[in-house]
Amino acid sequence: MTALLLDGRGLAKELKAQISQKGAEFKARTGYAPQLVVIQVAGNAASDWYVRSIRRSCEGVGFGFALQRLPETCDQATLEAAIQQASNDPSIHGIIIQMPLPSQLSADGAVAALNPQKDVDGLHPTNAGRLAQGLAVLVPNTPAGGMALLDRYQINLAGKHAVVVGRSNVVGKPLAQLLLARHATVTICHSRTANLAEVIRQGDLVAAAVGKAGLVTGEMLKPGAVVLDFGINEVAEGQVVGDVDWESASKVASAITPVPGGTGPVTNMMLLQNTLQAAQWLAEQA
Ligand code: NDP
């Protein structure tokens, strides 16, 4: 079997065009473009790279972008004050708190200080709760991107068994909620799951969000399974692989996301979509 390649780069391009157009319509109606701010505590090179990529994404669709950089030694009160200030600023529609934070800072405390309506990463407990209840919400970008890929290729989920490997608040748990909302039967696996291979073999859809190169192999998959690989693992200088062993899995799966070029490129587009959504909701309330 040769698996259908779920092309994230292609989808990202389509989404970029749609978001640009909707952003321009929003600006024509309101007189301002959606505006995103990243609050970053200095000292993490990988996070610098990510911030640059968010800036490029915003500029690419005509959204405003601002970076608020706090010193590496900043304390919790200073961080939360910056978050609250952005939360109260009517000219800002989306806020990202760039993770990871230095060890003296609490990520939970920082997220709790956010206005949930500007929480374009979908991390605030209010948004996690709304997602679990099936209410309108800003959904975390990475799992939203995975769902957008499934939709793009019209992959039906109703009645299918979806196995999600990973239970983080950023990827695994919200993805499980999104799959459940589409009527999949969902199993969530994690580091304590017994007989992981046996559980994965039950999946009509297998989603891996672990951070371990090649953890899911073709031998573990049910023939014809659809595979979403969220893993980003740098195995050598400049060489990134997913959590799924491409070589073996692509021979067994019916459809699979490559790494790179699968779920990754769609993630930033979901961030832009959330920023536009937040701006629209805030404009309706103004
Ligand atoms: P976390 O480290 O927060 O979570 C990893 C999850 O994997 C945990 O639930 C952990 O279980 C589980 N796990 C660890 N080892 C095993 C194992 N041997 N068997 C089964 N489960 C295991 O990671 P994230 O969710 O933040 O990220 C996951 C991956 O996705 C990473 O590679 C990250 O780089 C990537 N990522 C990709 C994005 C994209 O745009 N495509 C965006 C965000 C992340 P437990 O809870 O028991 O510890």
Automatic annotation (TrEMBL):
Gene3D superfamilies: Leucine Dehydrogenase, chain A, domain 1 (3.40.50.10860), NAD(P)-binding Rossmann-like Domain (3.40.50.720). Residues 140-280 form the Tetrahydrofolate dehydrogenase/cyclohydrolase NAD(P)-binding domain. The keyword Hydrolase applies. Keywords: Amino-acid biosynthesis, Histidine biosynthesis, Hydrolase, Methionine biosynthesis, Multifunctional enzyme, NADP, One-carbon metabolism, Oxidoreductase, Purine biosynthesis. The keyword rRNA-binding does not apply. InterPro entries: Aminoacid_DH-like_N_sf, NAD(P)-bd_dom_sf, THF_DH/CycHdrlase, THF_DH/CycHdrlase_cat_dom, THF_DH/CycHdrlase_NAD-bd_dom. Its EC number is 1.5.1.5, 3.5.4.9. NADP(+) binds at G166, R167, S168, I232. It catalyses: (6R)-5,10-methenyltetrahydrofolate + H2O = (6R)-10-formyltetrahydrofolate + H(+); (6R)-5,10-methylene-5,6,7,8-tetrahydrofolate + NADP(+) = (6R)-5,10-methenyltetrahydrofolate + NADPH. It holds the Pfam family THF_DHG_CYH. Residues 6-121 form the Tetrahydrofolate dehydrogenase/cyclohydrolase catalytic domain. It comes from the Bacteria. Pathway: One-carbon metabolism; tetrahydrofolate interconversion. Belongs to the tetrahydrofolate dehydrogenase/cyclohydrolase family. PANTHER family: C-1-TETRAHYDROFOLATE SYNTHASE, CYTOPLASMIC, C-1-TETRAHYDROFOLATE SYNTHASE, CYTOPLASMIC-RELATED. Homodimer. Catalyzes the oxidation of 5,10-methylenetetrahydrofolate to 5,10-methenyltetrahydrofolate and then the hydrolysis of 5,10-methenyltetrahydrofolate to 10-formyltetrahydrofolate. This is Bifunctional protein FolD. It comes from Herpetosiphon gulosus.
